[in-house]
Amino acid sequence: MKSFISLEEGIDILNKNVKSIGIEEVSLLAGIGRVLSEDVFSKIDNPPFNKSAMDGYAVVYSDTEEGKKSLKVIDEVFAGSVCKSEIKKGTAVKIMTGAPIPIGADAVIKQEDVTFKDGFIEVNKTVNAEENICLKGEDIKEGSLLVKRNKRLDYADIGILASSGITSVNVYKKPKIAFISTGDEVLDIDKDLKGGKIYNSNKYTILGRLMELGYEVSYVDHENDSFTGIGDKIKRALEVADLVITTGGASVGEKDLIKEAIGYIGGEKLFWKINIKPGSAMLCSKYNEKIILSLSGNPTAALTTFELIAKTTLEKLSGKEELEINREKAILINEFKKKSSSRRFLRGKVKSDANGQKVEITQVKSGNGILSSTLNSNCLIELEAGNEGVKKGDIVTIIKF
Amino acid sequence: MKSFISLEEGIDILNKNVKSIGIEEVSLLAGIGRVLSEDVFSKIDNPPFNKSAMDGYAVVYSDTEEGKKSLKVIDEVFAGSVCKSEIKKGTAVKIMTGAPIPIGADAVIKQEDVTFKDGFIEVNKTVNAEENICLKGEDIKEGSLLVKRNKRLDYADIGILASSGITSVNVYKKPKIAFISTGDEVLDIDKDLKGGKIYNSNKYTILGRLMELGYEVSYVDHENDSFTGIGDKIKRALEVADLVITTGGASVGEKDLIKEAIGYIGGEKLFWKINIKPGSAMLCSKYNEKIILSLSGNPTAALTTFELIAKTTLEKLSGKEELEINREKAILINEFKKKSSSRRFLRGKVKSDANGQKVEITQVKSGNGILSSTLNSNCLIELEAGNEGVKKGDIVTIIKF
Questions:
Q1: A343 in helix, strand or coil?
Q2: Cystine design at B76: which of A49, B94, B309, B332 (Cβ 3.0–4.6 Å)?
Q3: Nearest-CA distance A92 → chain B (Å)
Q4: To which CATH superfamily is domain A24-45+146-172 assigned?
Q5: Using CA of residue B93, residue B97, residue B102, residue B108, what is the dihedral sign?
Q6: How far is CA B180 from CA B102, B243, B246, B312, B397, in A?
Q7: Residue of chain B nearest A187, judged by CA positions
Q8: Preferred mutation among A54, A81, A139, A352 to probe B, highest tally of B CBs within 10 A
C-alpha cells in the first residue's frame, strides 16, 4: 500500500482500479442524466420530408418571377396531412407551417405576400427556388451521429433522440452507494446530545451530496469505534452496493480503526493518506473488486476528499472514461494569509461575468471541523504546497462543485 | 388580455398571478433541493462543549510556562466520552481529538511535544491558554441563524442543520406539473412515421428538462388539433396538477386553437404573444387560480420560452420570492450576422476562466424548428431588438440554463 501520496497518484491508482459496472437499456426519458454507452445515429432524415416554414401558398417559384401573376388555388394542406393534388405551373396550394410540400411545388410564398380573391391568388412578390421550405434532412441526415458515447444525456440530447424516433438508449448502470459513518462520539440527529457527543453531520452532508448528484444510496449505517464492527458492516454493505463510503476512524486516538477494519475483512489497501489539507487522513481500499473510500471524520475534510476523490470515482463508476478533476482559473477577491507547507483546499464562492471569474474565500477559519465554512460555497480553491498565503487579485485554481 | 407584450411585461403579469402552493414539513434529508419557508436557528452551541483539536494531553497551561516540567498523567479521555477526573496543577489527562476537555484543564499540548515515561509526561514546549482547544460555540452559537428563509437547500445547508440537531424543515410544497402536447402532425416516438407526421420531440425535451430541474410530472397527454379536446384535457390535467404546460396549437393554420381551448373552458387569458424570437407565439392563461403556459409547437421556440417563462414561473410556484431571469455578461467568440428587428435569443455554450466568460453561438441556423442547435448548449444569448447582428469580441448578455 502506498502512503502519503500526492492527489495525482491517488487519482491514478483509482483510475486503474475503478471500472464502470455494466450497461443497461432504458427507455428514452429514463436516460436523463445517464451516460450513453454507445454512439447513437439517426434512424431518419429530419425533417422527414420537405415542409413549409410558413403559412402561405405552395407554388412553382418561376410562376412568381415576373411580378404580379394570378395562380389558381387548387387545394389546401395542413400540418400532419398530405396533399393529394399535384401542383403545375399556374396553380397553387394553400399550405400551413409544417405541412409537407405538395408534389410539383418548389417554393412557398407567404400569406402576406399574396392577395386572395375568388379562388385565385395574386402574387405580389417573387420567391426563389426552395424559399420558405425546410428541406428533408436539413436539420439531421439519416445515419448521422446524434449523440456520442460517454455523453451524459441532457434534455436537449433526449429531444434530438426523440425527434429521430429513438425509443430507448443503452447507458452505463447507475452505481448503488453505501454510506457508513463511524465514531463513538457521533450521535444521530434524533437523539439527545449527551456528554462528549456531537451530531452526525457527515451522514447528512454526504447523503445530501449523493442525492444532489443523482446517485442511489442502497445502504446507510453507523458503527462505533470497533474495527470488527466496521469491517462487518462494510462487508454487509458491499452485498448490496457497488461502492462504500465511510467517514471517521481514520485516526482515532492511536489507532487507525479503518485500516484495521479493512485488514480484518481481508481487503486490499490501495493507498493511505494524501498530501492535502484538509482531508489527508483518507484510506482507499478494495474488497471483492469493489472500492471502499474511507474519508476523515472531520466534516470539512470529509467533504474536500468527497469532491476530489469520491465524486470523480463515482463518475468513472457511472461510465465516464477517466476520473478527472476539472480545474479552472479565477481571480481572488479576498485573502488568506496563512502559509501552508502542504497543498491546501479552501472553500470559495465563484461568480462569473465578461470581466472574469471572481472567487471569494468563504472559509474564515481554517479548522478541519468548521462546518459553517461550507455554507454558501460553490467551489474549492486549490493552493499549492509551500504557498505563502494568497492575496486579493491573485489568480487561483478553482474546482467547481 | 394583453397582446404582443415585452418579455418584462410577461414576467410582471406572472409575478402578480403566481403564488407558491403552500408549506409542508419534511425530514431533513428530504429537504435537499427544496426551498425553506422559514429562517432556521441553531438549537445548540457547536461544538457543544470545549473539545480537543489534537491528540495530546489536557493540561493547565501555566504548568508549561517554565519549560521542561513533569506532569502526572491521571486519566485518559476518548472522543465520545467524558473524563471523570479533574485536572489540577501538576497533572495531565491523555486526550484524543474531539474529546471534551476535562474539568480544570485550559489547554492541550500535542503528543509530539511531550515525552511520556512511567506515568508522567515531560513537557518540551509551552502552550498558551486555550491552545489546541475548539471552544464551545466557536463554530455556531445557540440561537444563531443557520439558513435563511427562501434558500434552496443544498448539501452544506443540510449538514449545518444536522450538526445543530434539526431533524425536519418547513419547505414550500413542490408543484405537480402537467404536460400536454398538441398537433395533428405529431406522433409519439413508438409509432411509425407516416406521411406528413413528425416525432413529438417537445414531449421529451420538456419532460426531460422538468426532470433535470427536479419537478414532479403528474399528467402527460397528447391531443390533436381540436380546441374542445385540448380544453377538456387541460381541465382534466388541472385536477391533478398545479400548472399545465402545453406545446403547439398557438398558430395552426388560421386558427389559434389554444386560445379557443382556453375560451371554451372559460379560462382567463393573461397574455398572448411576446416580442421575442423565437418563441413569440405563447399564451399564458389562468383557470381556477392555476396557470396554463402554452408554448409554441416549434421545438426551439418552445425551449426558449420554457427557459424564460416556464422555468421562472415554476421557481416562484416552488417558493422563490419572485420570477426572475438571471442575466450575466460574456464575450462572444464567434458571430451572428443576421439583423433582427425583434429581441432575439440564440443558443450558446459558455465557458469561464480568470480571463472572462466566453460564449460561443452553437446555433448555426436560425430556424425555429432546428432542434440540433440545442445540442451542447448551456445558455441563451440575448440580442436586443433592432440589433445588426453580433461579432467576435462583443460583450453579450447570457442566461445560463
A1: strand
A2: B94
A3: 16
A4: Molybdopterin biosynthesis moea protein, domain 2 (3.90.105.10)
A5: positive
A6: 66, 11, 5, 19, 32
A7: B80
A8: A352
A196 → closest Cβ in B100, B147, B197: B100
* Fold classification of B2-22+174-317 (topology level): Molybdenum Cofactor Biosythetic Enzyme; Chain A (3.40.980)
**A136 to chain B: which residues are within 8 Å by CB?**
none
Question: A391 and A334 in contact (C-beta within 8 Å)?
Answer: no
CATH class of A327-400: mainly beta
**Which three three-digit cell numbers place residue B39?**
429562517
Whether A189 has its CB under 8 Å from any CB of chain B: the answer is yes
B353 neighbourhood in chain A, CB within 8 Å: 328-330, 356-357
User: Which set of grid coordinates corresponds to residue B383?
Assistant: 440580442
Within an 8 Å CB–CB cutoff, is residue B252 touching chain A? yes
Number of A to B CB contacts under 8 A, please give it: 288
Give residues 110 to 169 of B whose Cβ lies within 8 Å of A: 134, 139-140, 147, 154-167
Positions of E strands within B173-248: 176-182, 186-187, 198-199, 216-223, 243-247
**What is the residue-level pLDDT of chain A in tens, covering all 401 positions?**
899 999 999 999 999 999 999 999 999 999 999 999 999 999 999 999 999 999 999 999 999 987 678 999 999 999 999 999 999 999 999 999 899 999 999 999 999 999 999 999 999 999 999 999 999 998 889 999 999 999 999 999 999 999 999 999 999 999 999 999 999 999 999 999 988 999 999 999 999 999 999 999 999 999 999 999 999 999 999 999 999 999 998 776 667 899 999 999 999 999 999 999 998 899 999 999 999 999 999 888 999 999 999 999 999 999 999 999 999 999 999 999 999 889 999 999 999 888 889 999 987 654 544 566 667 899 999 999 999 999 999 999 999 99
- Under CATH, what is the fold of the domain B32-45+138-172? Molybdopterin biosynthesis moea protein, domain 2 (3.90.105)
